[in-house]
Amino acid sequence: MSSQWIFLSGEFVKKEDAVVSVYDHGFLYGDGVFEGIRVYSGNVFKLSEHLNRLYESAQSIMLKVPYTKEELERIIVESVRRNQLESAYIRVVVSRGVGNLGLDPKCCSQPRVIVIAEELSMFPKELYQRGLRVGSVASRRNRPDVLSPQVKSLNYLNNILVKLEANQAGVDEALMLNDQGYVTEGSADNIFIVKNDTIYTPPVYLGALEGITRNAIIDLAKELGYEMKEAPFTRHDVYVADEVFLTGTAVEVIAVVEVDGRKVHEGKPGKVTNHLLSEFRKIVVTHGVQCYPAETNQAVV
Ligand code: PMP
């Protein structure tokens, strides 16, 4: 590919020209919101769900996205097309924009919108076959009444801190608990456990982001006839689960084979996890918006 095009403040610019001011409050304070979206064979998976979450995050922090959802959808699709991408990862960022060194958002008059679409670097196949080692961390998930995990804000320090803890512990991913000790999620993924043929995931009010992959897996599990429950659980439940897996835009569905040194499913990905991953990979091209419609210009819903 020749040059990568990035949408920045109203126009497409080359990657090397895509720079923002040091006075942007997204940079100075993490004042903004974002989404990570995936494109499968030209299909922007669950685009309207991602846009809804982006606009809700923005509404929550009183940030006005300077485009309608339809306009932003067109910009995202155009970003994929311009870069001639088939399988891609898209990052949409809306920052408060340029202000001064004070934190008051009043001084930022123009929110900034950025769309980066790039070739997807796939997670290695071996990782899905081997599964992840996960460790619970000392840092707790942000309390929903302090900084709600539903706001996908540019302030990801809570998540970065737990990733640091996981790195220090030499495991692949962190398991975050809330201030009551209930399991919430990973650093950037939701958690599911399987016990006696029932699948459980924590309700989001406990302090997990309402992941779009999470919701897709809940729907899929029900369609496939599994008993699926959103219910609180503790580390103990994870330790004695038949299977554990994580979901997210980047990881899709990935097995966890060890938690705090306890082997899960004898250290191997389980059949429910593998089943859900293979079925998930079938639906990713039918739920979303097609960037290169075959005959018409209609979006696939
Ligand atoms: N939790 C957190 C904290 C995340 O950052 C993500 C990634 N967006 C997820 C869960 C998974 O959400 P999704 O399936 O929408 O990517």
UniProtKB/TrEMBL annotation:
Keyword Amino-acid biosynthesis annotated: yes
Protein's name according to its UniProt entry: Branched-chain-amino-acid aminotransferase
InterPro entries for this protein: Aminotrans_IV, Aminotrans_IV_CS, Aminotransferase-like, B_amino_transI, BCAT-like_C, BCAT-like_N, Class-IV_PLP-Dep_Aminotrnsfr
Family: Belongs to the class-IV pyridoxal-phosphate-dependent aminotransferase family.
Record keyword Amino-acid biosynthesis present: yes
Pathway(s): Amino-acid biosynthesis; L-valine biosynthesis; L-valine from pyruvate: step 4/4; Amino-acid biosynthesis; L-isoleucine biosynthesis; L-isoleucine from 2-oxobutanoate: step 4/4; Amino-acid biosynthesis; L-leucine biosynthesis; L-leucine from 3-methyl-2-oxobutanoate: step 4/4
Reported function: Acts on leucine, isoleucine and valine.
SUPFAM superfamilies on file: D-aminoacid aminotransferase-like PLP-dependent enzymes
Cellular component GO terms, alphabetical: cytosol
Pfam families per the UniProt record, alphabetical: Aminotran_4
MF annotations from Gene Ontology: L-isoleucine-2-oxoglutarate transaminase activity; L-leucine-2-oxoglutarate transaminase activity; L-valine-2-oxoglutarate transaminase activity
GO biological process: isoleucine biosynthetic process; L-leucine biosynthetic process; L-valine biosynthetic process
EC number(s) on file: 2.6.1.42
Cofactor annotation: pyridoxal 5'-phosphate
Reaction equations catalysed: L-valine + 2-oxoglutarate = 3-methyl-2-oxobutanoate + L-glutamate; L-leucine + 2-oxoglutarate = 4-methyl-2-oxopentanoate + L-glutamate; L-isoleucine + 2-oxoglutarate = (S)-3-methyl-2-oxopentanoate + L-glutamate
Matches recorded under Gene3D superfamilies: 3.30.470.10, D-amino Acid Aminotransferase, subunit A, domain 2
Protein encoded by which gene: ilvE
UniProtKB keywords: Amino-acid biosynthesis, Aminotransferase, Branched-chain amino acid biosynthesis, Pyridoxal phosphate, Transferase
